[in-house]
Amino acid sequence: IPHISLFLFCFLLSTENLLVLTVATKETEGFTRFKRSAQFFNYKIQVLGLDEEWHGEDDKAAAGGGQKVRLLKSALKQHADKEDLIILFTESYDVLFASGPAELLKKFKQAKSKVVFSAENFIYPDRRLEAKYPQVRDGKRFLGSGGFIGYAPNLNKLVEDWKGQDNDSDQLFYTNIFLDPEKRVRVRESCCFRHTWYEVVLKFENSRVRARNLLYDTLPVMIHGNGPTKLQLNYLGNYIPRIWTFETGCTVCDEDGRSLTGYKVRTDLLPFILIGIFIEQPTPFFSQFLKRLQTLHYPKKRTQLFIHNHEEHHRLQVDTFVKEHGKEYHAIKVIGPDEQLENAEARHLGIMAPHGLQIWKSFTCPPMVKPFPTIFPSPCTHRQVIAPLVSRHGKLWSNFWGALSPEGYYARSEDYVDIVQRRRVGIWNVPYISNIYLIKGKTLRSELDQGNLFQSSKLDADMAFCQNVRDRGVFMFLTNRHSFGHILSLENYETTHLHNDLWQIFSNPEDWEEKYIHENYTAALKGKLVEMPCPDVYWFPIFTDTACDELVEEMENFGQWSAGGNVDNRIQGGYENVPTIDIHMNQIRFEREWYKFLLEYIAPITEKLYPGYYTKTQFELAFVVRYRPDEQPSLVPHHDASTFTINIALNHVGIDYEGGGCRFLRYNCSVRAPRKGWTLMHPGRLTHYHEGLPTTKGTRYIAVSFLDP
Ligand SMILES: *[C@@H]1O[C@H](CO)[C@@H](O)[C@H](O)[C@H]1NC(C)=O
Ligand SMILES: *[C@@H]1O[C@H](CO)[C@@H](O)[C@H](O)[C@H]1NC(C)=O
Ligand SMILES: *[C@@H]1O[C@H](CO)[C@@H](O)[C@H](O)[C@H]1NC(C)=O
Fold first, then answer.
1. CA 262 – CA 169 distance, rounded (Å)
2. 207 alpha carbon to ligand 3 midpoint, in Å?
């Protein structure tokens, strides 16, 4: 026991002798993260230069830096004679601790030097000095000024000769000392404690996580960002120094980030939000998107809309929406296709639009997000930019990147799949977001108030935006704490039809189903709600009103109604005897989609209702029939040229027409009041000899398909 306490005593003593010095002129999010990690591991830190103006060039990372040496020099004076004090000097915006002081000190002592600098792969800022650098057997060769550790008196000696300007290079200063044998300051570089993010992987063990450097097979004490993801520090910052946290959210915050939910808030006290909607390419199910926008849980009187519609294709929908709902909003601004505004320029205008009271501005670009998140993610307090996770149905394609490659393009992070599939839930610092995100108004007026964030000579608008946000030290977050919706597939969207969404059954099947399949179809599939008005004639809901209306309008738009005009009719025995006024699915190039519909929605229910019968819903004939008193009011008794037939009513009896219905002669049984969106299903060629009852007023439409195994 005495041994152990002695050991503990030594341990405490030694870590007590460590002081971390860092320069930070602003309390950025990166700095906050650094501080959090330092506190977690119990480092003693002293911050130099806070709130001082920074005299360096922000965009050239390592140019300048002399200010840091000046600040360090003055701070070290008071420690000059503390022989035992070990000082770690480090950058902080793009650095975090991954381990505690004991390990750091152990590694420092192993290096057997008075001062140890972190090493870099590249020489900066003066490349001509390369020849003077000693060769190293492995590891990095060049000095970096971002982090070094040493005894206080030695460090003091190192910087006491500094007479440079604030904008001179600190790195060059240290490099010259390192390379000058006259100075006789023993400086040794080593990769023993500081590691670059892309060399590091995370090892998850139960609820613990530890970073490991694969290159050197060591456990880093500090990790620093580098390259395009410098400040985001890749996704490592999400886990280090601690396990990711679940955060309790709030829906609306006031100017100081206090939650306003849970209080009875007067609507006129709620902050203004601005929603930017950017329609940058033809987008399916746009009408559904607008419907969802209407259901957003936020008072419209406190909401402003900014709509940039680049597409002629959506002009009517946007105009109609503005006409019908514009007045409900606090303000609404539309930039139409005529104005021929570049997308990046429009987004810039949108972001800069009305300055004033608004706190959050939210963005949806392009608007293929759906269902539109009715719960706004809640970027309280320190979240300045946050995106709700949306991905394609059942796919890994989403609106964020977990990591960047060192060149700044997409890289899959170790946790990407888990976050998309919501196996890990939380709020994540990520380097790239798109499609939908929220930005704090205050941030737009401060950190991000510098020119067009979306403009870049090389990058697309989304990548440009993210790069600019990253460069300005603002963190982007992604939340997957709720299911916020999904992204549509925009490939294969045809715009040549009247109702193009009808053709989306392959590309966006879930959205297609939601828009077109009757809400009670699933109940019917379970055998509920299925009626049998005549023997072996089943009757169940299949289409929404919208599906019926769009199909009829599509046919009327095509317009080539004819009586048995289709060659196929004559091939089918019996059918030519009873020609109808119709348009076939193949005439509007809808047969592939119709076949898919039959296979997906009719086949399963057929097999339920006629047990032992299996169908691949092969069909020769599928068409929409029009009955009118003055054209063709009825159909004489006939057999269908099919094993079974479906007959879907496409409009409302009593509203759109009178009369109509279907009579099965063998059973002396009629279905007289067909319900819109419901289908009849009955056997074809043998037992169910039937006739179409006369339509006495208006126009009646039905969709008929003759089906075989
Ligand atoms: C550094 O700043 C001084 C004055 O503040 C200026 O004269 C000089 O040109 C600057 N040097 C560089 C390299 O920017
Ligand atoms: C679906 O079924 C329920 C219960 O029978 C009914 O109340 C509802 O109106 C039906 N929905 C439609 C669109 O007909
Ligand atoms: C058919 O049914 C109607 C009433 O539903 C009835 O009046 C008529 O007599 C029936 N005809 C035959 C042939 O059974």
1. 53
2. 76
